[in-house]
Amino acid sequence: MRMNIAQKIIKAHLIEGVMIPGSEIALKVDQTLTQDATGTLVMLELEAMGIKQVKTELSAQYVDHNLIQEDYKNPDDHLFLQSACQKFGIWYSRPGNGVSHPVHMQHFGMPGKILLGSDSHTCAGGSLGMLAIGAGGLEVAMAMTGHPFYVKMPKIWGVQLTGKLPEWTSAKDIILELLRRHDVDGGVGYIIEYYGPGLKYLTAMDRHVIANMGAELGATTSVFPSDKITAAFLKSHGRIDDWSPWVADKGVNYDRDETINLSELEPLIALPSSPGNVVPVREVAGKEVYQTYIGSSANPGFRDFAISALMVKDKQVHPRVSYDVNPSARSILEELVEVGYLGAMIHAGARIHQAGCNGCIGMGQAPATGRNSLRTVPRNFPGRSGTQEDSVFLCSPETATASALTGVITDPRDLGLPYPKVKLPKKNIINKSMLQKPLSSAEAQKITLIKGPNIASLPEIKPILDDIKIPILLKLGDNISTDGILPAGARVLPYRSNIQKISEFCFDMIDNTYAERAKKVQAFGGHAIIAGENYGQGSSREHAALAPRYLGLQIVIAKHFARIHWQNLVNFGVLPVTFTNSEDYNRLNVGDTIILKGIRDALKHRQPLSLTLESTGATIPLHHELSNRQIEILMRGGLINWVRETTH
Questions:
Q1: pTM, rounded to two decimals
Q2: How far apart (Å, rounded) are the C-alpha atoms in residues 398 and 417?
Q3: How far is CA 294 from CA 271, 308, 397, 627, in A?
Q4: What distance in Å separates the CA atoms of residue 14 and residue 12, rounded to the nearest whole number?
Q5: pLDDT tens digit string along 189-221?
Q6: What are phi and psi of 367, to 5 degrees?
Q7: Taking phi first (over 0 means left), then psi (-120 to 50 degrees means alpha), and beta for anything else, what does residue 558 get?
Q8: What SS3 class is residue 218?
Q9: Confidence band of 534 (pLDDT split at 50, 70, 90)
Q10: Which residues contact 445 (CB under 8 A, 6 or more apart)?
C-alpha cells in the first residue's frame, strides 16, 4: 500500500484504533513540549497524578511567554517550573533563551518522531518531518506519564508546491495564500502535507513559517518531507546523526489535493482581525502605520531578521513608526550580532526586545489605540496584542520592513530597491548554556517544588449530573477564539497557575459581566453557553476550558468546535455538543433556561440527547461525537479524576 509521510509516521506510532479518517486512534508520543503559559498547569497536573519521572524519550519546558517581571508572579512561576523540571526529569529552557518552537527545532527536533505540545503552534515541528501536534496541557501531561495521545484519524491534504518564489515574496506569503483560499477553518480534520518541486527552494526555517501557521487553518498539523534540506539544517546545528529520510511513496493519493504555483505569488497581508482575512498588499497600500514587528514563532529564522536588516541598512525608519525587533532565539540573536545585522537594525531605529514571545501574546509591545500594527506573528485575533481596540495586520518581514521605512503599508516591490541576498550561516552558533539537563532520578527525588503565593492547587471537578436545569449565560457567534474566552497578555497570564483568580477574566473582552453572573448561578446548578462555528479556535490554552468550568459551566452547545478546545472541554468535565440542525441555534437566547434529563444514561448507551426550552416546552435535538473513552472521562468529572480512579 502506498503511503504518504503522515500515514507512515502514524502507522509507526499506532497503539490503538484503525487508520480510518474520523475514527479515534491512540498514538505513542516520543517528545513533549510545554511553555510557561500552559506548562505551570501541566506541572501541577503531574503533581496531582503523583508522577515521579516522565516516561517520554524527551520532554522540554520553555519559558518564553511570560517574561515580563513587573512583580513577583512571573519570576515565582519560573522558579516553580525550574524545580518541577528537576523533579520530573524535564529539560528546562530559561527565560530569554527563546521561543519554544524554533529552539526545540534547533536542539531536539527529529524526523519521524511524534511531538505533542501544550501550544497550538507545536505544529511548526512538521518542518523537520515530525508529526508535531498541539494539544491541551492535560493531554500533554498524560503523554509525559506514558499514556498514548488520542485523536481522531485525520484526512491528509496534499499541497503541491511548484515554481519558485519571485523576489519580495517569501514563505509567509505561501501560508497566507492558503489562508486566503480556505480561511481559518479550511484545514479542520486534516493534516496538511507539502510536496512537489517547489520544496527545493524552501529552507528548513522557511518550512517552519508555513508549518507554524497551519494552526491558523485549523489543521491537526502540517508535515514536510525529511530530505536533503532537513539534513543540511541538522548538520548545521551539529545533529546530523538525528537525521533520517521520510518521504511519501511515489504515486500516493491524498484525500484532498491542490497546487500552489510559487511563481505566481505576490506579497499578501491578513487584515484585522483574522488570519484568514487575506488580500494582496497592493490593495491596502498607503494606510498609515504606527508599528512594525519582526520576529515571533511564525517568522523565527535568521533569514527573517537578516532580510529586514539588509533592507534598513544605512537608512532610518519613518519617524512615526515603532520598528520592533523580537528575536526568536538567543543563538539567532548571537548570529545577528556576529555578522553586524543587529547593529544595522539598531542604527535604523529598531527597538530590540528579549528573545521570547513578547508582543505576539500581548506581553509588551502593545500598539497605540486605533493605530495600525504590521506584524510577522501568526495571529491577529481582537485584543491579542494587548490593546483591546487593536488593528493588527499579518505579513512577511519584507512587507513589514518596507512599511517601516515609508510609514505607510507598502508593497515591498514598490521601494525600488534591489532584492537583498541573504547568506545563511554554514554552521550555526550552538549555545546550550541556558538549556538545563534533567537530573538523574536519584537527584530528582531530593527536589521539592518551589511554590510562590500565586500558585494554587487545581480545583476539584465533580462529575456531570444526570439531569440539569440551567440558564444560558452567553450566546456567541462564529470563530470565537480561546483569546476571546480567556484573554492573554500581561494583565491576565500571570495568574495562569491560579484558576480562581484567572477565572475572573473569562470572556472579559466579549462580556465583562460573565464571571459575576456565572458566580451568582453557580450554586443553582451552573450554566450553559451557546456558540456558532469553529468555537475555541486558536491557542491550545486549557485555561479557556478549566476557568469557565470553575465558574460552573456545564455544557457548551455549538454549531462546531475547534479540535483542541473540544477535547479540553471534555478533559475538564464540560459536555460539548452540537446542534443536530444548525438552524436551532436561532431558537436559543441569553436568559433562556434549558433542561436536559438522563444525560449520563444517554451518553453511556449512546442514545440521542435533546434539550427542552423551559419557556415554551420546545425540544431541540443535540449531537455529540464523543468516543467511549471520552464518555467515561466525562462520567468521572474529567481526565484528572479518571487517572486517579483508574490507576490507583
A1: 0.91
A2: 12
A3: 17, 8, 6, 43
A4: 6
A5: 999 999 999 999 999 999 999 999 999 999 999
A6: -80, 165
A7: beta
A8: coil
A9: very high
A10: 52
